[in-house]
Amino acid sequence: MELIHRLLPEWQFAERHALVLDGVSPARAYASIVPGLSADDPLIARAIALRETPSRLLRALGLSRNTLPTRPFGFHSFALLGEVPGREVAFGLAGRFWQMDYGLRRIARIASHGG
Predict the structure, then answer these.
(1) Nearest to 71 by CA among 54, 56, 93, 91
(2) Which residues pair with 92 in a beta bridge?
(3) What are the domain boundaries of the chain?
(4) Confidence class of residue 112 from pLDDT cuts 50, 70 and 90?
(5) Taking Cα atoms as reference points, which of 48, 53, 107, 115 lies closest to residue 78?
(6) What angle do CA 74, 94, 10 make, to 5 degrees?
(7) Long-range contacts made by residues 87-91, C-beta under 8 angstroms, separation at least 24?
(8) What pairing do the DSSP bridges indicate for beta strands 79-84 and 88-92?
(9) Taking 80 as the threshold, does the pLDDT of residue 111 lie above it?
(10) What distance in Å separates the CA atoms of residue 23 and residue 69, rounded to the nearest whole number?
């Protein structure tokens, strides 16, 4: 059973993407997942900074006690949910994203299998 089906057996929406990597071994492709996801993207960083500016300003002025983390939202905000080494990896997060501080909730690693 695929990792996603163990983590989320029922869902309302599905989307699948594929990329053919000619001449790249599966091990090398898998090893590039986390570095690729965690790489800085200047456009995304600017969008997140823009989204967080009002909250950070209100907190700096003492007009809000929001719990927005000192570090901007990013890949580090996600939890590793599970992994099938060399084959699959799943990250996720839970929160109330309409709130200024994202309403993030801690979630634990859920699944791990040896392959």
Answers:
(1) 56
(2) 79
(3) 1-8+69-115
(4) low
(5) 107
(6) 125
(7) 87/30, 87/115, 88/2, 88/3, 88/4, 89/3, 89/30, 89/33, 89/34, 90/3, 90/4, 90/7, 91/37
(8) antiparallel
(9) no
(10) 41
How far is the C-alpha of 31 from the C-alpha of 88, rounded, in Å?
A: 11
Q: Encode pLDDT of 38-90 as tens digits.
A: 888 999 999 999 999 999 899 889 998 877 888 889 888 888 888 888 888 88
Tokens of 6: 């163990």
Given the structure tokens 């979630």, which residue do they identify?
Answer: 107
Of 89, 59, 88, 93, nearest to 75 (Cα)?
93
26: left (phi over 0), alpha (psi -120 to 50) or beta: alpha
